[in-house]
Design a protein that fits this description.
With 198 residues, the protein is of the alpha+beta class. Helices cover 44% and strands 21% of the residues. Strands 1, 2, 3, 4, 5, 6, 7 and 8 form an 8-stranded mixed beta sheet that branches. A hairpin with a 5-residue loop joins strand 7 and strand 8. Helix 1 packs across helix 3 and helix 4 packs antiparallel against helix 5. It is globular, with a radius of gyration of 16 Å. The relative contact order is 0.16.
Length: 198
């Protein structure tokens, strides 16, 4: 049985934010950005909302028809956007002004993001905890990678867990060789995928 995928619209915003919030509550990077379970429960959704809004504005969000998983994709041009330097500070002000890690994670991931070639950026992919391991994430990613292969477009992401890294490797992504170790926190793995020919 195949996974039915559709493009999320603005009317799906609340569903997407709830899904991402639930999917990333126990993620190592989210736990680092928002230390403490109660604090994370109160605040984390605001970061997920900011991410969803940014992707609704400039990219696209794929959603499984049953609402159990979504993927946030941004097309990245060959040239870096002019406002990239101020974006982390704006994000912190919008999400949690007292939390410097909101800004820091944006600066650190921005600093390792490849430049010079247009590509699709898988910003986030979330599957609700009760449905993880069913292949929903792989189906969401493969639908975009198929298009990337047809168009000769590479793809990029940062894996936030060792488990995720293994999944992405099965889909053709390769570790760039330079991990991002968050200060007193977990490791992230930048991964790149060249378009594949049939």
């Amino acid at each position: 049985m195949g996974v039915v995928i559709r493009t999320a619209g603005e009317d799906d915003r609340d569903l997407v934010v709830r899904l991402l919030d639930e999917a990333f509550q126990d993620d190592p990077v989210s736990s680092w950005v928002f230390p403490g379970e109660e604090y994370r429960r109160r605040t984390h959704h605001r970061l997920m909302a900011a991410f969803a809004d940014a992707v609704f504005a400039d990219g696209h969000i794929d959603l499984t028809e049953d609402g159990a998983a979504c993927a946030l994709w941004l097309p990245v041009p060959a040239d870096e956007p002019e406002d990239a330097e101020s974006a982390p500070a704006q994000l912190r002000r919008a999400v949690d002004p007292e939390n410097e890690r909101v800004e820091l994670i944006a600066r650190l991931t921005g600093g390792i993001h490849p430049t010079g070639r247009a590509h699709e950026y898988l910003w986030m992919i979330g599957v609700v905890p009760g449905r993880q391991g069913e292949g929903l994430g792989a189906a969401l990613i493969e639908s975009v990678l198929d298009r990337c292969d047809r168009e000769g477009l590479p793809a990029y992401l940062e894996a936030s867990s060792a488990r995720g890294k293994v999944l992405y490797e099965r889909l053709g992504f390769e570790f760039t060789g330079r991990a991002l170790d968050l200060p007193d926190g977990p490791r992230m793995w930048p991964m790149w995928r060249e378009p594949q020919t049939l």
